[in-house]
Target: DUF6017 domain-containing protein
Amino acid sequence: MEEYQAYSEIIKENIEYDALLQRNPYEKDAIQGIFDLILETVISNKASMTISGQEYPMNLVKSKFLKLNSSHIEYVLGCLGKNTTKVYNIKSYLLASLFNAVSTMNSYYKAEVNHDMPQFAG
Model:
């Protein structure tokens, strides 16, 4: 239980949980669900985890999840909001989105800017 409480506090601080809720009042349930999923993943005792069909060592998964911040959560919420395809397993979808957010968010926003303002591309 101590580990659960410690990681709960760390994750809430990392993602600026209270500020995130204030900035996104209509996403309260989604943010709580994402927080719960991050915490569940970080305290897992498994040796590895499958994400997007690929097996990853749990240390790598935990490391990526502990690097998540409020911008990553808002990015995932935005991607989820833009998705129009059927999501059959929302937990797997969110795990993959969160796992990849640290690596892909900046490139995604750069591509968006390049598309919207090609004069600034390069």
User: Anything to note?
Assistant: The chain is about 70% helix and 5% strand. The two ends are 50 Å apart (CA to CA).
